[in-house]
Amino acid sequence: MQWNLRMRAAQAGIWKSTEMRRRLADAGLQISAGKMSALWTGTPTSIRLDDLDVICAVLGCTPAELLICEPEQVAARRPQQARTAAATGALPPRLGRHTSIPPA
């Protein structure tokens, strides 16, 4: 996921994290300077849904505009065997009692 807070804030005319923090406080969300800095400069590892709701309300956007999916990043995390199988359309054999390979 790509965190798009600064771009959405710029589109709303907010150029500094202090201004964003003030607007969030006006909307009822008190964020520490450290947390605001982390949200402003990087991609958060987690965010409360209530906080995301207020951020979206302040910026006039949806969560989908703040969190941009990166399917190529997901594909790169797959194990090599799964990537090869996905590229060729072949299914890898299942392990265990119920195998997907027919008996010879």
From TrEMBL:
Span list, region Disordered: 79-104
InterPro entries: Cro/C1-type_HTH, Lambda_DNA-bd_dom_sf
Pfam families attached to this UniProt entry: HTH_26
Biased composition (Low complexity): 79-94
Sequence ranges assigned to domain HTH cro/C1-type in this UniProt record: 4-72
Domain of life: Bacteria
Molecular functions (GO terms): DNA binding
Protein name: HTH cro/C1-type domain-containing protein
